[in-house]
Design a protein that fits this description.
By secondary structure, the chain is of the alpha+beta class. About 35% of the residues lie in helices and about 20% in strands. This is DUF2442 domain-containing protein.
C-alpha cells in the first residue's frame, strides 16, 4: 500500500538535505530561566544563547501568557532542531533563535521598529553630540552627466 504523503526524491536530493541538516546548528540543552524570563539554549558548536520569551512570536500567539511552570517543562526534539514545550503543545525552531529569527518577517520588522524607537540616556547623549557637530550630513545631489556632443 502506497502512502499518499510520501514524496519521491533522488539520492542526490536526499544527500543534499542530509548535509544541510548536519550543517545546521543543533540544540543539545535548553532551560527556562525564571529569574530572567528567558529561554536559554546550548548548541553542539559550543554557542549558548538566552532569548527573552517576550521576543519569541510563538509565545505571543497563545491565548494567554505562558506560566513559568509551562515554560519550565521543555524537551529537545528533532535531533536538536526544535525546543518543544509539551504543556503548551508548542515547538520553537532552535537554529532560528541562534540566527536571531524569533518569528515571521512581519514580526521581526515590527520588533525592529519597536526597538528602534526605544529611547535611552545613551541615545539622547549621542543625538546631542551629533547635533553639536552639525547634525546628519546633507545628501549630495546626483552628479549631472555632461551632454553628448
Amino acid at each position: 500500500m502506497e502512502n499518499a504523503n510520501m514524496v519521491d526524491i533522488s539520492r542526490e536530493q536526499f544527500e543534499a538535505a542530509t548535509r544541510a541538516a548536519q550543517a545546521s546548528p543543533v540544540a543539545v540543552a535548553a532551560r527556562y530561566s525564571r529569574t530572567h524570563h528567558k529561554l536559554e539554549v546550548a548548541f553542539a558548536n559550543g554557542v549558548s544563547i538566552a532569548v527573552p520569551i517576550a521576543l519569541i512570536q510563538d509565545f505571543q500567539m497563545l491565548e494567554k501568557p505562558p506560566t513559568a511552570a509551562q515554560l519550565s517543562e521543555l524537551e529537545i526534539w528533532g535531533g536538536g532542531q526544535s525546543v518543544f514545550f509539551p504543556r503548551l503543545d508548542l515547538l520553537v525552531w532552535a537554529p532560528g533563535l541562534l540566527q536571531g529569527v524569533y518569528g515571521s518577517k512581519a514580526w521581526m520588522r515590527e520588533l525592529a521598529r519597536a526597538m528602534g524607537s526605544v529611547t535611552s540616556p545613551a541615545k539622547a547623549a549621542a543625538a546631542r553630540a551629533n547635533g553639536r557637530k552639525g547634525g546628519r550630513p546633507r545628501k549630495k545631489p546626483p552628479a549631472l552627466c555632461a551632454p553628448h556632443t
